[in-house]
Specification:
Distance between the termini: 52 Å
Bound molecules: adenosine-5'-triphosphate, magnesium ion
Length: about 575
């Protein structure tokens, strides 16, 4: 066996998935003169989602691995649904993920003239005909999986008549839907896609690039293989629902006499638990106001994940880990969350933020005193240095970190108990102050032990609990948005109405949170670990000095814990 590393060769030849095995075989057989050229072909009818990220990483990744090229091509053959906004968002998302199409940005609509010429040639070769059946009749004539289809009464029109009719279809002489151009293949084929599929339909719709120039538009199954061929694509990678279309893909290329035809390879689309992935359904969530927009941080869109605080590195890592296979499966969303935790663990500065503040007065700390304490930014990455944080007589701690009547294993603050304040001192709870009327806890009265300052040589005492805190006089008020899975059910698609599975508590907005003063000027998009709470990013809604934070992910997979607890019951 050859040691690629020792010979300085890359491990290109060692396939990590079945697609690479196919490509290696093609390279061995010197197909396409050793070229590898892929494309990512989104339809601009929505925003990209994490499933598209899988396809993007796969297509651009394969090109990079083999020293080949990958095009970005908009599959814009369906004008009624396509919008410029989507084109722009798709370009931004692919770039943000870290991929570059250089000067190879294409639109299937750029090929309309060429596609028309191919269709004319098919007619001349007796391989396509104009059919006057209605859409419903075409369906009836097609037959079923168990019954062969019947030939259309227009199947044997002469070449001259077909050429004339097709030209007049283009010229706008016939109403929408009155005629189509069909391939003449085999009405008895066991594969329904081969029973004289429609290649062109009449549709008066303004196209975002070609305007009203065309009133006939090619179907996906005709436009896609030819667009691939025109661009010199060698491997046309798509998802498994196109497997049954592959014979048609190949038929179109052969009938159009394409030399070195591209090869279609299918892989399983990504499904994520607690998520829907179809653009149609995502659009519904946006348009019906279930979320705030395509970039709502709960959406599985690239723009939603970006706004939530996900990094391109974490998404690429995720796509790498899930791998590529033929069999459909559902990936646990916890895997995606694991990837962002891993990425941010060493990168995100660790700071203190109190989400539900409880006032604490340290009675033996001088009223006018402020101490600046040294706080390391990331103990797991010493290179990130440290910062100074203010400590004073009045601080806030988390409401949950105090219990008046705690159970045995509660190691946080309680009357008469001691805890350490992170980067600061040990304090002891002396007294609880309550609202006389409601009985609600207003503040705690504590004392501190000056000999216990973190980092001091005299610091020897140990206590079980360490709490995060902020100095009340210095803290910055913030809004914090806590997100949870958008859907309660693991497979929300299972039910007829997927929206019935929406999680009513997928967003909890906390106001009056108190964060370290250094976060006042945090730039939108920057990411932090809030000690003991999770990873957070600054939302673009931030204005003035009132930061808004999105929780990207909690520190641990709480859902896994819940599931385990349920299993053990
Ligand atoms: P949707 O069903 O979500 O609307 P689509 O397949 O219609 O998606 P396109 O814009 O046509 O979306 O997809 C562009 C490329 O991304 C295609 O090659 C498609 O196969 C791939 N793709 C779409 N969804 C997924 C997914 N969930 N996993 C992997 N690849 C996907
Ligand atoms: Mg599609």
């Amino acid at each position: 066996m050859k040691n690629h590393e020792a010979t300085g060769e890359t491990d290109v030849k060692k396939p990590v998935n079945f697609i690479q095995s196919i490509i290696n075989e093609d390279l061995t057989n010197n197909r396409n003169d050793g070229r590898v050229h892929t494309r990512f072909p989104p339809e601009p009818n929505g925003y990209l989602h994490i499933g598209h990220a899988k396809s993007i990483c796969l297509n651009f990744g394969i090109a990079a691995r083999y020293g080949g090229l990958c095009n970005l091509r908009f599959d814009d053959t369906n004008p009624s649904k396509e919008e410029v906004e989507y084109v722009e968002s798709i370009k931004a998302d692919v770039k943000w993920l870290g991929f570059d199409w250089d000067d190879r940005l294409f639109y299937a609509s750029d090929y309309f003239e060429q596609l028309y010429e191919y269709a004319v040639q098919l007619i001349k070769d007796g391989k396509a005909y104009v059919c006057d059946l209605s859409a419903e009749q075409i369906r009836e004539y097609r037959g079923t999986l168990t019954e062969p289809g019947k030939p259309s009464p227009y199947r044997d029109r002469s070449v001259e008549e077909n050429l004339d009719l097709f030209r007049r279809m283009r010229a706008g002489e016939f109403p929408d839907g009155s005629r189509v151009l069909r391939a003449k293949i085999d009405m008895a084929s066991p594969n329904l896609n081969m029973r004289d599929p429609v290649l062109y339909r009449i549709m008066r719709a303004t196209h975002h690039r070609t305007g009203d120039k065309w009133c006939i538009y090619p179907m996906y199954d005709f436009a896609h293989p030819l667009s691939d061929a025109i661009e010199g694509i060698t491997h046309s990678i798509c998802t498994c629902e196109f497997e049954d279309h592959r014979p048609l893909y190949d038929w179109v290329l052969e009938a159009c006499k394409i030399k070195n035809p591209p090869r279609q390879i299918e892989f399983a689309r990504l499904n994520l638990s607690h998520t829907v992935m179809s653009k149609r359904k995502l659009r519904q969530l946006v348009e019906e106001g279930y979320v705030r927009g395509w970039d709502d941080p709960r959406m599985p869109t690239i723009s939603g994940l970006r706004r939530r605080g996900y990094t391109p590195e974490a998404i690429r890592d995720f796509c790498e880990r899930i791998g590529v296979a033929k069999a459909n499966s559902i990936v646990d969303i916890a895997m995606l969350e694991h990837c962002i935790r891993e990425d941010l663990n060493l990168r995100a500065p660790r700071v203190m933020a109190v989400l539900r503040p409880l006032r604490v007065v340290i009675e033996n700390y001088p009223e006018d005193r402020v101490e600046m304490l040294d706080a390391e930014n990331n103990p797991e990455n010493p290179g990130m240095g440290s910062r100074q944080i203010p400590f004073s007589r009045v601080i806030y701690i988390e409401r949950d970190d105090f219990m008046e009547d705690p159970p045995k294993k509660f190691f946080r603050l309680a009357p008469g108990r001691e805890v350490r304040l992170k980067h600061a001192y040990i304090i002891k709870c002396e007294r609880v102050v309550k609202d006389e009327q409601t009985g609600a806890i207003i503040e705690l009265r504590c004392t501190y032990d000056p000999a216990t300052r973190s980092g001091m040589a005299t610091e020897t005492r140990k206590v079980k609990g360490t709490l995060h805190w902020v100095s009340a006089a210095h803290a910055v008020e913030a809004e914090v948005r806590l997100y949870d899975h958008l859907f309660l059910k693991e497979s929300p698609d299972e039910d007829e109405d997927f929206k019935a599975n929406l999680n009513p508590n997928s967003l909890e907005t906390l106001t009056g949170c108190m964060v370290e003063p250094g976060l006042a000027s945090a730039a939108p998009g920057s990411r932090y670990q809030f000690l003991r709470q999770g990873y957070f990013s600054v939302d673009p809604d931030t204005s003035g000095n009132k930061p808004v934070f999105n929780r990207i992910v909690s520190l641990k997979d709480t859902w896994a814990k819940i599931k385990k607890a349920q299993e053990n019951r």
